[in-house]
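# step 3/5: fold
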Amino acid sequence: MLEPAYDRPPAEVKFLRLLGFAYLALFVYATAVTKPHPSYHGTGLAVLLGFAGFVAGLVVTNPRAELSEDRRLAGLLLVLISSAVLAAFQPKGLWQASPYFIGVVAAMRLERRRAIAVMAVTLAVLATIGAIRHEWGSSVSVLVAVVPWFLLIRLMRRMRDQNEELERSHAAEAEAAAAAERGRVAREMHDVLAHSLSALALQLETTRLLASERHTDPEVTRAIDRAHHLAANGLEEARRAIGALRGDELPGPERLQSLAETFEQQSGVPANVEVRGEARPLEPDARLALYRTAQEALTNVLRHAAPDRVELLLDYRKDATALTVRDHGALETPVPVGAPSPSPGGGYGLTGMRERAELLGGRLDAEPTSDGFRVELWLPA
């Protein structure tokens, strides 16, 4: 997966990192060739321990890693102690790099009071060593130059924190605006669509009873009854859509059994649901895709086929979640694989199901079988 452009560090940051590595390499070289040289006895042993402690402090601190403040503070103190040893026993070396490193990391990564305390202790310790060795010139010049660096990095951190707070505020405002818009759409759907479907379902129920009382042709009565069921299902779907807009949980695979039972009631055809593998939480879009695919596939069976039975298989695999809806029996009207098949219950069709699957990185296969039709949805885990 490609890294988003806004997550990549700018070229200046990459250059500063390379510069840091180069300076570390120079520090290692300078420490090795400057007198007294690192060794296993006398003053050289102190230089060797100071050098080892300095490198260990860099590793422990690691400015790029997400560490606790206590661990980072311990690493900075180790760097300070090691640099003090180097300043005392190898004053001609590159120990001057340590206060810059401590100041930058403390300003960038530590809380304000801790950062100031670490910087103050660093200046005091190195100034004391300079006074003891009567080398005020180099010590004072380094310590004075470190303070502006520390203040500059603190200012940059404050600006970064303000930018992040501003981004969070904008995101919250956008979320609030989206929630308000969803609420408005939900109210419109409730006031218009749900109300109209409710009135339609009531009118169809009244018409069905009237047709039954007047001994109307049974075919007409059954057609009215089917229309009433479709209107009632449409009303239920509208209410679920309104609930989703208001933040309710979207329907998912746990409702496959309910879909199968509704299908049996409408068609009189047995519908069996089987679940394989260990169920796992799914993303909301994946949950809805499974539900809608099963709903649309069953609607197509109801409208186009006269099967003996229908099977729904939900398979939780290691690499994917797969749903297969298959009917067994002769097709009355073959379902065109690429054509939409709008239905009051789902309204998506095979084309819509395929597009929904592709948006989630999956695929949808729909094809005739030897004794019916099969629809399979595959979504990556």
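# step 4/5: annotate
The first strand starts at residue 271 and ends at 276.
# step 5/5: archive (pending)
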